[in-house]
Amino acid sequence: MTTKPRFLVDSDVFITAKNAYYDFGICPGFWEGVIRQHEKGRVFSVDRVRNELLAGRKDDDLVQWVTNDLPPSFFLDVESGDVPNRYTEIMVWSQRHPAYFDYAKAKFATGADGWLVAYARVHDAIVVTNEARAPDSKSDIKLPDVCAQFGVPVMNTFSMLKELAVRFELAGAK
């Protein structure tokens, strides 16, 4: 029996969806689909992403969705098992990397990206982000580059939706 991959979603997936192509008023099916796929055990994120998402205005649609609609089980605890050890390895790598500016290292150390990679690495999950690789960057440590460094698979939102065979139906369509 083959295990279906588990997807760990980065905060930028939700922020970009809300601000662009999957606005809550235009495409509620995206948001409902995320919850359905979570209920099937396929889509999750980590508690550090939740913290990033809740940093918005309390009346923001995304903050309201995270607070009121997403089940608490969507956000996985990163402080368990071998995740903190893998996170430490990722932080040591990023802080010692000679190409990155100090402010890029500081920003990376305070965000959720390192935790996403650590959790995915320990639990054989796929990281989902809209970020693109930028291996020559000095000013920003990109999530796909960290995934590549540590052998963690990564894909974008649309690839995840295809993999999950998600379909959005038009309201009232037959």
List the helices and strands and how they pair.
Blueprint: E1 7-9, H1 11-19, H2 28-39, E2 43-46, H3 47-53, H4 61-68, E3 75-76, H5 83-96, H6 102-110, H7 113-123, E4 126-128, H8 143-149, E5 154-155, H9 157-163
Parallel strand pairs: 1-2, 1-4, 2-3, 4-5
Helix pairs in contact: 5-7
Structure write-up:
The protein is of the alpha/beta class and 174 residues long. It starts with 6 loop residues before the first strand and ends in an 11-residue tail after the last helix. Helix 5 packs across helix 7. The model has no long low-confidence stretch (mean pLDDT 93). It has a five-stranded parallel sheet with strand order 3-2-1-4-5. The longest helix is centred in the middle third of the chain and has 14 residues. It has nine helices and five strands, in the order E-H-H-E-H-H-E-H-H-H-E-H-E-H.
Give a nutshell description of this structure:
By secondary structure, the chain is an alpha/beta fold. 48% of the residues lie in helices and 8% in strands.
